Amino acid sequence: MGNKATIGIEDKNYEFDFVKGSEGEVAIDISSLRNKSNVITIDPGFKNTGSCKSAITFLDGEKGILRYRGYSIEELAENADFLEVAYLLIFGNLPNQEQLDQFLFDIKEVSIVDEDLKKILESFPKSAHPMGILSSLTSALVSFNPSVADIDSKEEMYSAIIKILAKVPIIVAWVYRKGKGLSLGYGDYSLGYVENITKMMFKRPNKEYIQNDIIVSAINKLLILHADHEQNCSTSTVRIVGSSHAGLFASVSAGISALWGRLHGGANQAVIEMLESIEKDGGDTKKFMAKAKDKSDPFRLMGFGHRVYKNFDPRAKIIKIEADKVLNELGIKDSILEIAKGLEKEALSDHYFIDRKLYPNVDFYSGIIYKALEIPNEMFTVMFALGRLPGWIAQWKEMREMKDPIGRPRQIYIGENHRSFVDLELR
Ligand code: CMC
What we know:
18 helices, mainly alpha, three-stranded antiparallel β-sheet, binds carboxymethyl coenzyme *A, about 50% helix
């Protein structure tokens, strides 16, 4: 490969620099193409477009590699605590004990939300989807924390980061508890980050709370596995909203909305609904495989396929093992897990799926664990959002620190050419 990339347009050649990543990825910097040639590139869905340089997450879709700041997802899921991973993603290195203690202490200091937020929560109808509530309440937090809307100093940046890490779990617990008709409270200052989230969600007003280590460990692992995934739909949303210098809470609220869709984080809810409907229908997986392959049928095998992974999703491998473990440890037999395994087996030997490189993704088995933990289907994507929070924060912070320009793609206009206005009575 030479030092420059050449693009020929009509009878002219234009030269562009290459951008090389630390893992050998190569891009052509075409940012000056339009100025030089009056031509733009077009790439719907950004299948071939890098939107930024980033030092946070590396993934190789062909080899099934996922690393946060250089550490493999397998090692982190096995050994780390979610708060350590959050620190790693946001600040670049694993914290030492002192840094971790300080981080947790700072978060605990601001682990409270304005009681008026409860009034907003109460005004949602019972039928409201938890993701809609989470996005709205995260956005509402901006009004209660106006100082976090404008981030110009390191101190303000840090303050916004710990506030959002402190307050979103409270909202998540409240959304869950509202759905169950339980009282809304606050966390336990003496507990770790994940232990505290688990208690805030599951404690009953009429019973002493006894921590279940299996549940805490499963949630910890799931949160780590969801913590970042480079420039996916919701993260790109967070970065692009933040690129207008909207604050962290507003940007994250937009990310939550993007995550909600069934093609993105909403797939975890869609997977369980699909597996339940297969079971209700008699458990004939072949029938649903045929539907997924039928181009005239809008049905897709939810939890299968990925824009980037074309071999396997390393997160799905870990979650599948974890699903078996959690169900065993909790003594739960779930026929849906067997249907999921059956579907996976069939898909992995089916030409349609092999040819298109469609494999189980992170969402295929995660819902089975959430279900075993008695988390309702509609809350699954909220749990994904809770895990993705540090990733969104890290990407937003990086975007601001790198002083990325405002996100503003161009388009190719395909509408009407100029025409004259016609008076109403003449149309
Ligand atoms: N079931 C059946 N066919 C599929 C599926 C599926 N789940 N996924 C992709 N295909 C087919 C698709 O019809 C197309 O076929 P053809 O080439 O004949 O037109 C081909 O595979 C390529 O699909 P695509 O939609 O062009 O691929 P994409 O990169 O734009 O979409 C995806 C990726 C994840 C949106 C898609 O695979 C999908 O809809 N999967 C189901 C939803 C899902 O599980 N989403 C969670 C993604 S992982 C969590 C996250 O990061 O958000």
